[in-house]
């Protein structure tokens, strides 16, 4: 996949995820400022230019959409928080937020979606 195709797909993934996540009331006014929205969007696209990260997050989406949306949610809130406190390496922190559940790819789906007793 070419870099421009990867960026377009990353942009589409981000937009689709935002439609679901930002409707939640707990988000309040987060991402209502155009500057914050564009900053997070550009950061996501930049991080997704890493083919391994992009592939892993897409695999997570296929495995479990809930975990995928949770990872996007964690990325957005974590990245904005890191920016607010002037963290030195926001990109590394934000990538960690995005990929924090990636270990679920190695756990059988039957265990991940096991009903409570």
From TrEMBL:
It comes from the Bacteria. Residues 70-114 form the HD domain. It comes from Anaerobacillus arseniciselenatis. This is HD domain-containing protein. InterPro entries: HD/PDEase_dom, HD_domain.
